Amino acid sequence: MTAENPAVLVIEAGRAERHYWRDLWRYRELFYFLAWRDILVRYKQTVVGIAWSVIRPLLTLLVFALVFGRLARLPSEGFPYPLLVFAGLLPWHFFATALSEAGMSLVANANLLTKVYFPRVLVPAGTVLVSLVDFLISLVLLALAMAWYRHVPDGRIVALPAFFLLAALAALGSGLWLCSLNVKYRDFQYVVPFVVQFGLYVSPVGFSSALVPEQWRLVYALNPMVGVIDGFRWSLLGGDQTLHWPSLAVSASVAVALFVTGVRYFRRTERTLADVI
Amino acid sequence: MSVAIRVEGLSKRYVLRHQRHGRYTALRDVLAEGAKNLGRRLLGRAGRGAGGAPDREPFWALRDVSFEVEEGTRLGIIGRNGAGKSTLLKLLSRVTEPTAGRITLRGRVSSLLEVGTGFHPELTGRENIYLNGSILGMRLAEIRRKFDEIVAFAEVERFLDTPVKRYSSGMYVRLAFSVAAHLEPEILVVDEVLAVGDAQFQKKCLGKMEEVGRGGRTVLFVSHNMDAVLSLCNQGILLKEGSIARMGSIAEVVGDYRRRVAELNYSVETCLARGGSGGARVLRVWVADAQGAAVSAVTSDQPVMLCLEAEVEEVHAGGKALDVGFGVDDADGRRLFTTVSSWNDETVAITGHSLRVGCLLDRLPLVPGRYLISVSLVFQNDTLDSIVHCGAVDVLPGGGAIHANRARDHGDLDLPCRFRMLA
After folding, report:
1. Which is more confidently placed, B271 or B27?
2. Cβ B140–A29 below 8 Å, yes or no?
3. Quick one: pLDDT band at residue B51, thresholds 50, 70, 90?
4. Secondary structure (H, E, C), B2-53
5. Is residue A5 part of a domain?
6. B3 with B69: CB under 8 angstroms?
7. H or E segment at B91?
8. Distance of alpha carbon B346 from alpha carbon B325, whole angstroms
9. Which terminal residue of chain B has fewer beta carbons within 10 Å of its beta carbon, N or C?
10. Residue A232 located in a structural domain
11. Residue closest to A80 by CA, chosen among A197, A245, A236
12. What does the pLDDT profile of chain A (277 residues) look like in tens digits?
């Protein structure tokens, strides 16, 4: 007999709540393991492996720089246009990969979810962690690009993690919504690529959001990535740009709202997930 | 002894959807359904009367089940397909939530509902041990500590850095079970994992589980194999249609189950288990004599034909060769004989959308008793339909042999024999 008094677990209809947050902590290692698995698998199955996380944003950057920078000659706030785009592309790319991976994550792991218990939220959350790795690699690239343009960021760079957190909240929030909906209605697997493609042009990736007419800026900021991208440019590129606080507040509130409602909806779906998926 | 598991009034309801598109719902259907209901309401008709069969139908997989398991008990859960065994295990292992009732578990629970859950084919054996261990609820430090033991038990030392997709199925199962066997939970929930792997490894697994049970831990074991249940468990629960039909010592419960089985009619609908990718569906399985007339009993010295009728979907219809397999089990589910058409260098050609095929055996040389038939349809390694225990045949003593003094452990075969004096 074990010496210690074993933990007592009570399972009751509609009462999974009680262990939820404690379980999440207990299973924290699985969170890393799931992310580690996804990274390993991606690395093994493709020839260039992790290089894909570099190639994709770089090619997007190239297209933007050529089409919008050279041909359309979009204004770039006094910075080299490629830097302006890169600073916007960085959070956008993170958001887009996290969202699309999280959106498909439950369905992709259906076999696991119907056979073992663990806090299900780890699955979509793990994909955000995987996207973080891509993000960090791109961040190194950006640093190289900034060195090339001899652009030294100022003290505002300390605010960068806050903006990153905002991007992660928005990505996980909408990812939770999409993956729960996807379990029930597979239609949403077609929604995700659309949102990602559409969002690239709707968000201020290729241009500065200062181009948006003043009276529309708050409406524009309903897209949470507007606040995130503005914030990234502000803290990375510095210069004489000012942060548009009202629109940042709007974007941040939307991101938080997405996250809170996303978690709620996910937890509602989670209970019967194994029966439906 | 304290109580390790207490289950009170446990129920689980599923809503069966009569749907055409697979398991999940398409948004389209929800919208269409909504529009239909609205239309009905506008027309003032009662929902059901006019609409024909309801699209949703509640189904109680478990209904008001209560029992207690004392610490150190090795509990066997038996019952036929659809009796609620798997649902009970899923509830105990928290994969899904009960509709009503309560479960109290004392101690860490690990469940093995499938061998190798979460194994990724691209990852190496080493990586999968870590991943799988973590999924099953082990801490990193714990996995590190037991790593060598796990590898040794699975006997895969040489292939640790090979992706598991290159493993033989035996190695794969050994590794998967080995990880699970080293969980050391207070309560271990196991679902039929021993159906796989070679006989020697099965023995090793049973031994490991017995060891777990003897160490004061609680084991819940679901199996169709009565011999395994009898040798491993000391208590039993017999489930029938979602309720407990019998509870008590394992010998009593298995005896009860056997009696019920003997009285049962076997058909495709009441089968023990069914699986397969679809593409073909077996409709009927029966036993006939050499002339093709259906019979329910044969003598052990007469020819017998195992027959099945199936419908075949468009993709497989017309000309493609299917592999048809028949298995004969004893009443405990122990496999006595298997035959597959391709083993005999024969393929079964399909004409049109239906298939009727028989396998003629010169004789069924088995001792008197009831034997159960399983069938499967395979197309190029893809099992289209596989049904366990969907037919039965009573074997009667053939000419000559007298079975009055025969005991169970005298064996299953009744081969024709003649004794003579040697010079």
Report:
1. B271
2. yes
3. very low
4. CEEEEEEEEEEEEEEECCCCCCCECHHHHHHHHHHHHHHHHHCCCHHHHHCC
5. no
6. yes
7. helix B85-92
8. 11
9. C
10. yes
11. A236
12. 333 455 777 877 766 566 777 788 888 889 999 999 988 887 776 666 667 777 888 888 888 888 887 777 777 777 888 888 889 999 999 999 999 999 999 988 888 888 888 888 999 999 999 899 889 988 998 999 889 888 888 888 899 999 999 999 999 999 999 999 988 888 888 888 888 888 888 898 888 888 888 888 889 989 999 999 999 999 988 777 788 888 999 999 999 999 999 999 998 888 778 787 7
Q: How far apart are CA A41 and CA B118, in angstroms?
A: 13
Which residue of A24, A30, A106 to mutate against B (max B Cβ within 10 Å)?
A30
Q: Tally helices (H) and strands (E) across chain A.
A: 12, 1
What CATH number is attached to the domain comprising B334?
A: 2.70.50.60
Whether A128 is covered by a domain: the verdict is: yes
Residue B103 shares a structural domain with residue B76: yes
- How crowded is residue B221: how many other Cβ atoms within 10 Å of its Cβ? 26
> What CATH number did the domain enclosing B75 receive?
3.40.50.300
Which of B414, B367, B394 lies closest to B261, judged by CA?
A: B394
A residues 195..214 contacting B (CB < 8 A): none
**Is A18 at the interface with chain B, CB within 8 A?**
no
Range of the domain at B178: 60-263
Joined tokens for residue B177: 């079970």
Q: Interface pTM (ipTM) of the complex?
A: 0.83
Which of B14, B95, B134 is closest, CB to CB, to A33? B134
Strand, helix or coil for residue B392 = strand
Contact B71 A33 (CB under 8 A): no
Domains of chain A: total:
1
CB-nearest partner of B123 from A12, A37, A271: A37
